[in-house]
Amino acid sequence: MLPCRSEAANQKGVEVCWGRGEPSLFTCHNAVIGSSGQRISYRKSYRFSLLSSSSLTISSSQPSDAGFYHCRLQLPGLFNDQTFSVHLIIIDSRPVFSSEPSKRSDDEGNLNAPQTTTDYITEGSDVTGGATTEPMMAVVQPIQQQERVNTLQMFVGNTVRTSFVVFIPALLLAAAYRVWRLKQSWETDRRMDQSEEGSSSA
Q1: Are the C-beta atoms of 144 and 105 separated by less than 8 Å?
Q2: Transmembrane residues, as ranges (predicted)?
């Protein structure tokens, strides 16, 4: 399970999509699944599913599933979308893994002592694999780094959207004003022509 850690993730009726790679400004990039409320609107593969908390579940995980994922919550209103990125690291378990912290032993520092592997801990795995011999580990980006990414994306997105919001109405107003001026000029010319015709006939 890859968590979508956002306060709005548990709200009902929120549109959620998960994609691979870095998130784009407006939509999910390379989407794998999307939902509108409780209804799944898009699913790239049967292996992807969503929980009620908007978390992504990947069944029968494969090494090719490793990489960056992002969830986007499309909230009502302008500039309210929220994104959260997760870096999924898939580790093929060859040596023995332990969920207990490694303990100091008398052999520590002895170069001839047999090597033991206790670095990777399977406890709290965020992705379910197809076999117990292939533990998966999901590493979430640091909060500060994620905030910087989101802040930059929000700034660029807000700037682009604000430009459209301001530019399009201004363009429409300019076009309407130009049409109005042309109409006024045409009516003025018509009145002048009529007055000239009246004076000449008199």
Answers
A1: no
A2: 162-180
Q: CA-CA distances (angstroms) from residue 75 to 16, 57, 112, 121, 165?
A: 9, 22, 59, 36, 18
Q: Read off the pLDDT of each residue in 49-54 and give the average, rounded to a whole number.
A: 80
Residue among 120, 112, 114, 129 at smallest CA distance from 94 = 120
**Structure token pair of residue 65:** 């599933």
DSSP category for residue 112? T
Q: What is the DSSP letter of 2?
A: B
Q: Are strands 31-36 and 39-43 parallel, antiparallel or unpaired?
A: antiparallel
Determine if the pTM surpasses 0.70: no
Torsion angle of alpha carbons 122, 126, 132, 135, nearest 10°? -60
Task: Please name the helix (run of DSSP H) or strand (run of DSSP E) that holds residue 166, with its range, or none.
Answer: helix 143-201
Query: Where exactly are the structural domains of the chain?
Result: 7-141, 143-195
The residues pairing with 82 across neighbouring beta strands, listed in sequence order, are 73
pLDDT of residue 113: 45
The CATH number assigned to the domain with range 7-141 reads 2.60.40.10
Would you call 100 helix, strand, or coil by DSSP?
coil
